From TrEMBL, chain A:
Keyword presence, Nucleotide-binding: yes
Alphabetical UniProt keywords: ATP-binding, Nucleotide-binding, Repeat, Transport
Molecular function GO terms recorded: ATP binding
One of the Pfam families matching this protein, by short name: ABC_tran
PANTHER family for the chain: CARBOHYDRATE TRANSPORT ATP-BINDING PROTEIN MG119-RELATED, GALACTOFURANOSE TRANSPORTER ATP-BINDING PROTEIN YTFR
Coiled coil listed as a keyword: no
Superkingdom to which the source organism belongs: Bacteria
The protein, known as: ATP-binding cassette domain-containing protein
UniProtKB/TrEMBL annotation, chain B:
Protein name, UniProt field: ABC transporter permease
Keywords: Cell membrane, Membrane, Transmembrane, Transmembrane helix
Pfam families listed in its UniProt record: BPD_transp_2
InterPro entries for this protein: ABC_transp_permease (IPR001851)
Organism: Aequitasia blattaphilus
Length: 458, 332
């Protein structure tokens, strides 16, 4: 009979009059991989904080490893032996893998460290786990896939009985993800439990023994192995409208790629027109990891790229993965952000007041009062994404390249991004999406190319 | 009435204006307190002197503000000022015409700014360390230029030079003050209205986003250090005109005054925030405190302590406001 490791009973959690968790109940068994499909992110951060740090709750009780650790009366234990693995690296980049696994953890009490013994110990652990990583390599030099593996080993060495794995599929290639899943299964057999959080239900179904559908601080449904099908999830998802461009419209070609070879990407050919969207489905993240810009300008091994008959350098706007942190100036005003590229477009050092006023007039109705805010830091994620795409529309490049458009996006945000991509297309801008997910791209792409041994157009 | 409200809202919507208004209230209170303690504080003569005291601080404050907004710092301001003072004075005492002396000094100071900019941006040295190095180099140059001695008086040849930069008046206003006003207008326009200004804020706000948006981080960083060096050069020339000679220790601690003027005026040490109107108020607070405490008979040590405390509190408030904003609730 399986034993419970964590039980959350009718927990409600609110902060600043906002309900984050509402009468939430769930349990995790020992040696179980429990999937959590997050239909949105509301309260998810608080749930993880509750599991790790026993955050204060207003209702309910929490049990961990057979003991009551938290209740509405107050927390009994400060924190649980739970580790989390997510986007943020918890490894010190300038220390070796061995140091990271054994020295940099709570409870390590040795003062004098014998490096050779330590490295042997780590090498043994890595070999047992069938991982080919040198123990004396610096953590900063690890690939993303290796980083996740080392973090998992570190968590298990620390003695964590529960490991929370959050959105790993967004960063890992298909191969790295498979390896990571194998490692998880190996540790699960040894008794470690996992809470596998992702917004991609297919990814969750692949690895989980049981799965939860989570939305707005509540568990909407518990799915057992025999219920893990797309049709059980679909009723909980909002149908996304098909926003593909209408066919038979005359449009000028913007970018043509002919017989492109690049690492694993073999013989890629496509032609993209104004107002058209093409998705490159890059499961191994060949193009995504090597930045499309670098590829287009330097790294071509064989093949030809024509950009509107000229070289591929100008009139291209890149929306990178994680665009909020890499394209927005959070402490500046909405208008500053919106107009940031305009000076380049009009080629004037001083943006004429006439232009500013006309943008205000044209976009004011669409954007609303948010347009007047002096700092965009407190805007919602949806508003920030809107700003990123509106800026692109205002700049009117010939081509917008969007890297991993759905990374870190919950279902609601995905819907918004799809709408925004459709707006780009309506403005006659060509859009090239680079995604490692097949999910949702059909709603917006006119065609998509699956990269692989023999790249195919669909 | 509605138009007035709209106008006020428009002013308050200007980036960093709220902070400037708050500090301005502080400045007004300080003036009232010192005026009550000693009525001669508001005399015409004292106000003229006060403005002449504020002008150099405003100038170096402008330079430091430019650098701080990009998220960097310039510790070499005082040394470049010393260099400027000593090189120009030495050249004039050797019989070189003031214009030629000013030009040579200008080139020397801009070279330091250029070096600072490249050390920070091209070589990726931490700005604190890079400018600490050039601070020592600059001071060394100031000492070596006249064989480790202060210069003699710049004499009759420098009379017009002193007249222009210190004694002279235009439209009844001391030239020193006018120079500060003109420099402020020019650099305020560049910062608030031009592409370069937007790039300066962009680098301080989010350097990765700036790079992705096609901003030349190296070019812009070099530009801000050049502005800083230019302002130090100008104050060095004014100092030379004021003293009528070159002194090796001129400009000592001025980097601290520059930071004080900027930070008190609301320029963020974390980069991306601040306006030059704030630097005016910051420099004015510094000047009023120096002047008022002097009138009140406070020793130099007390004046330094008071200014130091105000700087620390200003930075602390900025950090609290900026980092506190991260903790605000995230909208779903």
């Amino acid at each position: 009979m399986k034993q419970e490791l964590l039980r959350i009973e009718h927990v409600s959690l609110n902060k600043s009059k906002i309900d984050y968790l509402r009468n939430l109940s769930m349990w995790i068994e020992k040696a179980e991989i429990l999937g959590l499909i997050s239909l949105n992110y509301h309260g998810l951060e608080e749930l993880i904080d509750l599991i790790i740090n026993n955050a204060p709750i207003q209702q309910g009780k929490v049990y961990y490893d057979g003991n009551s650790v938290n209740s509405y009366l107050g927390k009994v234990k400060k924190e649980n032996k739970v580790c989390i693995i997510d986007r943020q690296s918890r490894l010190a980049p300038d220390l070796t893998v061995a140091d990271n696994i054994f020295v940099l953890r709570k409870g390590f009490k040795k003062y004098f460290i014998n490096s050779s013994i330590l490295e042997k110990e780590v090498a043994r652990t890595l070999t047992e786990s069938q991982i080919e990583i040198e123990p004396n390599i610096l953590a900063g030099l690890l690939t993303e896939g290796q980083r996740y593996q080392v973090e998992l080993i570190k968590a298990v060495s620390f003695g964590a009985k529960l490991v929370i794995v959050q959105n790993v599929g967004e960063l890992l290639s298909f191969n790295d993800l498979s390896k990571f899943h194998e490692l998880m299964k190996c540790f699960a057999k040894q008794g470690v439990s996992f809470l596998y959080v992702s917004n991609d239900y297919r990814e969750v179904f692949d690895i989980s023994d049981r799965a939860l559908l989570y939305k707005n601080g509540q568990i909407k449904k518990v799915l057992y192995k025999d219920e893990m099908h797309e049709r059980t999830v679909l009723p909980y998802l909002q149908p996304i409208k098909d926003l593909r461009a209408r066919e038979n419209m005359e449009r000028r070609s913007v970018l043509q790629v002919k017989d492109l070879y690049y690492d694993a990407a073999n013989k890629v050919s496509f032609l993209i027109h104004q107002g058209e969207c093409i998705t490159i489905l890059d499961k191994e993240k060949v193009l995504i990891h090597h930045s499309i810009m670098e590829l287009m300008t330097l790294g071509i091994q064989k093949g030809n790229i024509f950009f509107n008959g000229d070289k591929f350098v100008e009139e291209v706007l890149l929306i990178p993965e994680n665009p909020i942190s890499s394209t927005l100036f959070l402490d500046q005003s909405y208008l500053y952000n919106l107009l940031f590229l305009i000076d380049k477009k009009i080629d004037r050092s001083v943006i004429p007041t006439k232009v500013i006023e006309s943008v205000k007039k044209e976009w004011g109705k669409k954007i609303g009062r948010v347009m007047d805010c002096s700092s965009i830091r407190d805007l919602s994620i949806r508003e920030k994404y809107q700003l990123i795409y509106y800026k692109a529309i205002l700049y009117r490049p010939k081509l917008v390249i969007v890297m991993q458009p759905f990374a870190v996006a919950d279902f609601n945000l995905r819907e918004e991004i799809i709408k925004l991509v459709a707006e780009l297309k309506q403005s006659n801008i060509a859009v090239l999406l680079l995604s490692s997910y097949a999910i949702d791209i059909k709603s917006v792409s006119d065609q998509y190319i699956v990269l692989g041994e023999e790249s195919e157009i669909q | 009435m509605e138009t007035n409200k709209k106008g006020i809202r428009k002013i308050l919507a200007i980036r960093g204006m709220g902070q400037v208004l708050t500090v301005t209230v502080g400045l007004i209170i300080l003036c009232i307190v010192f005026g009550v303690l000693n009525p001669t504080f508001f005399s015409n003569k004292n106000l003229g002197n006060l403005l002449r005291q504020i002008a150099p601080i405003l100038l170096i404050g402008i330079g430091q503000s430019y650098v701080l907004i990009t998220g960097n710092i310039d510790l070499s301001i005082g040394s470049v000022l010393g260099m400027s003072c000593m090189i120009s004075a030495t050249l004039m005492t050797k019989g070189i015409s003031p214009i030629a002396a000013i030009l040579i000094t200008f080139v020397a100071c801009m070279a330091v700014g250029f070096l600072n900019g490249h050390l920070v941006s091209t070589c990726s040295l931490p700005p604190f360390i890079a400018t600490l190095g050039t601070m020592t180099i600059g001071r060394g140059i100031a000492q070596i230029v006249n064989g480790n001695y202060n210069t003699d008086s710049i004499g009759a040849a420098g009379k017009k030079f002193r007249e222009f930069f210190y004694y002279g008046k235009t439209f009844g206003i001391y030239n020193t003050i006018l120079i500060a006003i003109i420099v402020w207008i020019v650099f305020n326009f560049i910062l608030s209205r031009t592409r370069t200004g937007r790039h300066i804020y962009a680098i301080g706000s989010n350097v990765d986003a700036a790079k992705l948006s096609g901003v030349s981080v190296v070019g812009t960083t070099v530009k801000v250090y050049l502005v800083s060096a230019f302002c130090s050069f100008l104050v060095g020339i004014i100092t030379c005109a004021t003293a009528g000679m070159g002194t090796m220790d001129s400009g000592t601690s001025y980097e601290m005054y520059a930071v004080a003027a900027s930070v008190i005026g609301g320029v963020s040490t974390l980069g991306g925030q601040g306006i030059l109107l704030g630097t005016v108020v910051g420099a004015a607070i510094w000047g009023v405190l120096q002047n008022g405490l002097q009138f009140a008979g406070a020793p130099v040590a007390i004046r330094n302590i008071v200014i130091g405390v105000i700087v620390v509190v200003s930075v602390l408030l900025d950090v609290i406001v900026r980092t506190g904003s991260f903790k605000r609730k995230k909208k779903a």
